[in-house]
Amino acid sequence: MKLRFSRAMLVARAVAVAAVLAVAGACVPGTSGPSQPAQNDSGPLTLEFWTINLKKSFGDYVQGLVDKYQQQHPNVTITWVDVPGNDVGPKLLSAIASRQAPDVVNLANADIDQFVPSLTDLGRYLPPDVPQKYQPNLIDPLRRDGKLVALPWYNAGAPISLINTDLVRQAGLDPAAPPKTFDEALDWGAKIHAAVPGAYGMNGLPDENILRLEGIDMLTPDRKHAAFNTPDAVAVLEKWRHGMESGAISPGSTVKDDRQYPQTLANQQVAFGANAIPTSLTSLQKNAPDVFAKIGVAPGAVGKTGKYLLPDQQTMVVPAGSRHPETASDFAAFVTNAENQTEFCKLTPIYPSHSDALKNPFFSQSGGTTPMDRARAEIATELPKLELSTLGTGKDRQLSDRFREHIRAFMSGDKTAAQALTDAEKEWNDLLAQ
């Protein structure tokens, strides 16, 4: 369910967005009103509801939501449209431009900013207590200029530590006392490699997310210039480079695609993941069950901020062109309520945004003994520490790609830390000025 976009696609989309939103200015609340006149919601009405890539695997669940809402609201008919992930942006742009916008849309948080002028302020239609029921760290980033432009739905969860208990014990370390910080993780990794030469500590690079977790500001407050070229950032990078030299970090960490790491938990050439995504555990269970049986689970390591970064979350938005914004907002709140989020999370390893969902025994009680059970309990506990990693520039993916390119060069020994940061700073400033 994670969306990936090429740089060319992002550039093309940005150009298209500018053109479409200029045409669709009538959709913006507070200007000349919605593109289609809002209608009275007391009579029979139809809502068009879009999701992203859910029909094949979760069709029964989503259709069940639709059926339940229609039963509770006999005057409402919901037309459900499931859209391929790479198509949702262009398709929504086209619908807005043609003044045929759907009523409720599943949209990734990272894609919201380009649509903000054409999104409904949900706060106008929802009871005041409804937004208060979501985790503040997940709903607050969905406000723009005091307007609530989306409701949070599901996310991939907080990072966790995954530990090969056999390899860790061979190094004389206690898997029940894993590293709590990145510094401790680097120390652990070096000890493991020294004791078990065929194994490295972990995979990873000191990318922009690591710097942020270590308290380094990536941008100036106005988001117009890079701010990371500092002595503190140099120190973080050099610490990680030393970690690669000591075997704390695998040499394969410099590959461009982290799905192609040559040293992995699955092949037992790395001993742990200090900041692993929860789906890594699912992959291990499926592809390396013998290793999965050895895995210990603990909270993910943190930097100086003590926080975790969430790359993205799925949300529900109501385009301003909806003829039934009140009912559409109510349906968005229904889909994302605690009960429905919990049921969805039981079907696949995703995590809720609704505070009441975390009170459900499924999350609050770790009665199971499997790594999956322990991971679910750990992740639920750590969810309030999450912060969305978006920088809010509209060019986040491009900036990330360029930064990581320079970090890979540094970790490969082709640049000094200072040169990598200087080169990345120049590229960021050029991109931000465009």
TrEMBL record:
PROSITE patterns: PROKAR_LIPOPROTEIN
Residues spanning the signal sequence: 1-18
SUPFAM superfamilies: Periplasmic binding protein-like II
Origin superkingdom: Bacteria
Protein name: Sugar ABC transporter substrate-binding protein
Keywords: Signal
Transmembrane segments: none
